[in-house]
Amino acid sequence: MTDLICFDCDGVLVDSELLAAQTTVDYLAELGIQVTRAEASALFTGKTAEAAREIIRNTYQVDLTARHTARFDLLLFQRFRARLRPMSGIADVLAALRIPSCVTSNSGHARLALALGLTGLADHSECRVFSGEDVAQGKPAPTCSSMPPRALEWMCDVA
Description:
Blueprint: E1 5-7, H1 17-30, H2 37-44, H3 49-60, H4 66-83, H5 90-96, E2 101-105, H6 109-118, E3 127-131, H7 149-158
Parallel strand pairs: 1-2, 2-3
Helix pairs in contact: 1-2, 1-4, 4-6
């Protein structure tokens, strides 16, 4: 029997991956770095913000500051507000669940809150949200022992 279902957010709950890749292309172009959307997707999809900054530093020799991150988030959040949608059928799947679920994502809490709120998925009553910001290493690395105590306690109570 399954005791808990963990959903990724980007590409599973919300249709955000192409929006994020295009935002990456647009933002890197502002910095003088030319990449295609396919290249941006291959390099950055599924990565934490810290991992993305490290890739940019190592690949393009550009150190991104907090100001750079804030600019990227502004562009991405504007695009989300204009175009983000839930994945087809996911609201029905969530409504039909009869066991606890959570969201585990490498995206940051602000991005997750916005994405789930804009798409109407934040109201899913059993949903708990865990971000790559909550663990030392983002997916696929985290184990139960590396999760914050509050997440570990909740997940162990469910089992």
